[in-house]
Amino acid sequence: MDSPRSPNAAPRAGAERPKQNLLPVNAEILRTAQKAPGSEKIVVHAVVADRLTLVGTVKAKTETSTCIEYELSDATGDVSVKDYRDKRTGKAVQVDDVVRVVGQARVHSGPASMSVTYMAPVESSDEVEFHETEVKYVAYKLKPDNAVTRLAFASPEKEVKAEKRLASENDEPNAKKRLASENDEPNAKAPKTASLRDRVVEYLKTAPTDAGYKVAEVQKHLSGENPASVSSMLQTLVDEADAFTTVDLQTYALL
User: Residue 212's pLDDT is what?
Assistant: First the structure.
């Protein structure tokens, strides 16, 4: 019997890579998803979804003889997910935890249900906002003008603003070309490098005492810069009344 393999593991030699997409969704998109023709899978943004990911707060947890059922809540509403794995895996997740869920959604009768393959508390609260952004981005890229996309924005106000923005972008003849260019990493704008002045000021802010730092200490901290340029910048800060010399003429602090 073959051992279990990670869904992200490299395919065996000669094997075709499984065609699976991990689609970010929110509760409303999952609740209103339609059944794919001839299948129990669901359709999300006109795509038959293999695997979905959802981030939400656990509002309730119920253990049955076959699974652990969780009620999750996000900005768009509530949804139920079921974990049929060994129940020991559910002990780490408790009510009020904010969790990320990965699973497969199916429609048997009634709304779609999600069967958990991975579930764990998020590592950071920022993950909630990142997930919401992913939901909106994928909704826009896959089907920018349908009702399911509008559900990604969670409120009527956001929906109206989004529709206006999307309509404006879709009117541009080169919208697709522009979006491709924006997402092309080699063409992405490099982050701005802080100026020498900014770096000198930031370092002076870290002085452990009011006496500040000696010139040699600042030069050592900014070892990639010409020492003469660092000395000149310190004097410029003094001339502009942003810094002053303290215990001697070689020691500087911010005003």
Answer: 86
